[in-house]
Specification:
Blueprint (H helix, E strand, L loop, with lengths): L1 H14 L1 H13 L4 H16 L5 H5 L4 H18 L3 H4 L8 H7 L5 H4 L3 H19 L1 H13 L13 H17 L6 E6 L7 H12 L3 E6 L7 E6 L2 H8 L4 E6 L2 E7 L5 H12 L3 H4 L4
Antiparallel strand pairs: 1-3, 1-5, 2-3, 4-5
Helix pairs in contact: 2-3, 2-10, 3-5, 3-9, 5-13
């Protein structure tokens, strides 16, 4: 039985060899995060199914700086995929120049979002049915490298065009810095008497959404009622909330509710949180 399972996995990996090469370049060569990179490859396969044949094969010819730009365009699309219609409207005419050049025709966000629900389903199915299995060994390789060299930059890339890549990395870092941590924070509440500990909360998010957690701050009460989870990017926020104001999860059988953290000032955020969750304001003062 074990041999059959291994053979099935090998067949899957062989069939998706081109996808594996693309994923390897993203997470090993360019240092993109593991789970978002699965969605990037899934998006590229979505383009193939939309009629752009051999898209993933053709992108293998791109040098690292262009592949980096292509991946960032994919991330932009994935971010918009989970926004509300009102949030998408200002971006609807956004172009994807590298993607357009690769397929030989003009591609805009409006074109890609003609059937949002279908796109979501196809991308999510590809991640679940293909990426999580076919890329498992690449994930382990990346984790092993990260463990042995924690000081490496997440977007470091060895490339003959290093100067251009370093400039792009600096731009990405600057963009992230311009987004305050409060704008990247989830406010997660627990059912009274049924708290979730830090480790379980972190483990659940990483398993379900990838390495997107920057920090977790727990309510310091004996029985915590809430936690603030700082994410690495706004796209992680959109991915988790899926365009909804409030989502519910079950962690070890305990219900957890998550929404975007709203704060105009420390006092206003405490009042807003108290009204929304029913947590007395004095309890919020124990949070740090």
């Amino acid at each position: 039985m074990a041999l059959a399972s291994e053979l099935t996995l090998k067949q899957l990996q062989d069939f998706h060899n081109i996808d594996r090469l693309a994923y390897t370049r993203l997470v090993i060569g360019l240092g993109f995060d593991l789970f978002p990179s699965m969605k990037i490859v899934a998006f590229w396969n979505f383009l193939e199914r939309r009629g752009f044949k051999h898209f993933v094969k053709n992108l293998q010819q791109l040098p690292d700086p262009l592949l980096f730009s292509l991946a960032k365009e994919a991330i932009m699309f994935l971010h918009c995929l989970y926004l509300s219609t009102q949030e998408i409207f200002p971006r609807v005419h956004r172009d994807f120049p590298v993607t357009s050049k690769l397929v030989g025709q003009h591609i805009s966000l409006a074109y890609l979002l003609k059937n949002r629900e279908c796109a979501k389903r196809m991308i999510e199915d590809f991640v679940e049915d293909v990426c999580r299995l076919a890329f498992c060994d690449i994930v382990l390789t990346r984790l092993a490298r990260k463990k042995s060299s924690k000081s490496n930059s997440a977007l470091q890339c060895q490339t003959p065009h290093g100067g251009k890549m370093q400039q792009k990395v600096a731009t990405v870092t600057k963009d992230k810095a311009s987004v305050g941590s409060e704008d990247r924070t989830l406010f997660m509440t627990f059912s009274r008497g049924h708290p979730v500990i830090n480790q379980d909360l972190h483990g659940f998010i990483v398993r379900k959404f990838g390495e997107c957690v920057e920090a977790i701050y727990m309510d310091k009460s004996p029985l915590p009622l809430f936690a603030c989870v700082v994410l690495k990017s706004l796209s992680d926020m959109s991915m988790i909330l899926g365009g909804k104001k409030l989502v519910k999860f079950f962690i070890n059988g305990k219900q957890v509710r998550a929404r975007r953290f709203v704060s105009k000032s420390v006092e206003q955020s405490r009042c807003t949180t108290a009204r929304a969750t029913g947590i007395p304001e004095r309890r919020l003062s124990s949070f740090c």
